[in-house]
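One such given next:
>
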Amino acid sequence: MLSFVIIVQRLIHIYNILIAVYVLLTWIPGALQSGLGRFLARLVEPYLNIFEQFIPPIFGISFSPMFAILLLELASQGLMVLV
């Protein structure tokens, strides 16, 4: 059971990195139209859209990635409590 939790935690960590890279790509003009940008958008945007429904952008800055990563980290830590 512990090895399953470790694998899930690593997958969560990788997904958090993908979210961070996606956010960085949004700061570079035209980067989301690249192959990497489109790939990351397909992986990350469905999850981020959940948060964007509840957390509107403030002055054009979206805070949904921050809350998305925070929730994933809490889930990761919660898995360790269960074991």
Remarks:
- The mean pLDDT is 93.
